[in-house]
Amino acid sequence: MMNEKDLKEFHDLDKLKQNIKKSNKYNYLQGKQITDEESGSRVYDFNGSRLPSVTTILGKTKNQQFLKDWKAKVGEQEAERIKNLSSKRGTSMHKFLESYIQGVGYDDLTGIGQAAKPMAQKIIEVGLTPISEYYGSEVMLHYPGLYAGSTDLVCLHNDMESIVDFKQSNRPKREEWIEDYFLQIAAYAMAHDYVYKSNIKQGVIMVCTPDLYYQEFKIQDADLKQYKHKFLERLDMYHELKFDEKERVDFDTQALEKEFEKRLK
Fold first, then answer.
1. Exposed (0-12), middle (13-18) or buried (19+): which is 79, by Cβ within 10 Å?
2. Position 15 pLDDT exceeds 70
3. Max CA-CA distance within the chain?
4. Alpha carbons 211 and 208: distance in angstroms, whole number
5. Do residues 164 and 129 lie in contact, with contact meaning Cβ atoms separated by under 8 Å?
6. CB–CB of 152/164 below 8 Å?
7. Looking at residue 245, what is its pLDDT?
8. pLDDT digit string (tens) for 64-87?
9. Among 39, 78, 84, 83, which residue's Cα sits nearest to residue 60?
10. What is the signed CA dihedral for 66, 174, 111, 69, rounded to 10 degrees?
């Protein structure tokens, strides 16, 4: 049975929920997320066309030195433990937010779930307040022939059509640390505008730490345009790396075939 505090929280959240209306302005296409057997990377299938994910593109073209230094500092085992815990907590937080936005009941009584729940509530209470309506939650987006991915929310935020991504973080972020978050937003905005003839004006990144420190980062106008160009540069880099890999594989295969032929003689 709910106590007085639980009832108050329930009614407060329910009241807030009524302010986020669902709009059917965009009829979203549904692709399929799969793992490519050859590379092990996440890809999206839209009408038989397999497209690399935005996160894969950014991951393959990212400077990994900071990550290597951190692993060397804390040790491989501890780094893996922190990474797995953060991933699970982030997944649970996203599930709470998705369920809240879509107006369906959800709870997670595990230890990780109970840690993620107040983080989601902080984002609901602070981050979602300026949103008057939403067009889609957990939306699969694709730019035909180039890339695809899933964004957390497409909505009207402070009267601007916006792409929103939710992030959990173990500690507060600095803007200079999160360039890939901005690039991710820019990629989704480009894909949305191209396929749905929209005009996404803003990207919003909502971050919460386990101790409930909330941060918000926005990109608009010239900054959003700049990050679109930067993402296209990373996309070019990704294809160059893929081409180099294919050339190396082809070369290695040819070398093995020649060696095999020599041994037969």
1. middle
2. no
3. 87
4. 8
5. no
6. yes
7. 58
8. 666 666 567 667 777 677 777 788
9. 39
10. 10
pLDDT digits (tens, 9 = 90+) for 96-132: 999 999 988 888 888 999 999 999 999 999 999 999 9
Q: What are phi and psi of 22, to 5 degrees?
A: -90, 125
Q: What is the DSSP string of 162-188?
A: EEEEEEE-SS---GGG-HHHHHHHHHH
Three-state DSSP class for 28? coil
Cβ neighbours around 52 below 10 Å, total: 22
Nearest to 137 by CA among 147, 149, 150: 150
pLDDT surpassing 70 at residue 8: no
* Pick from 153, 168, 74: nearest CA to 112: 168
d(CA 87, CA 102): 22
Quote the DSSP letter at residue 144. T
The amino acid present at 59, given as its one-letter code, is: G
Tens digit of each residue's pLDDT (9 = 90 or more) over 140-153: 999 999 999 999 99
Count Cα neighbours of 46 within 13 Å in the Cβ-side half-sphere: 19
- Between β-strands 21-22 and 131-143, what pairing exists: parallel, antiparallel or unpaired? parallel
The neighbour count for residue 239, using CB atoms within 10 Å, is 13
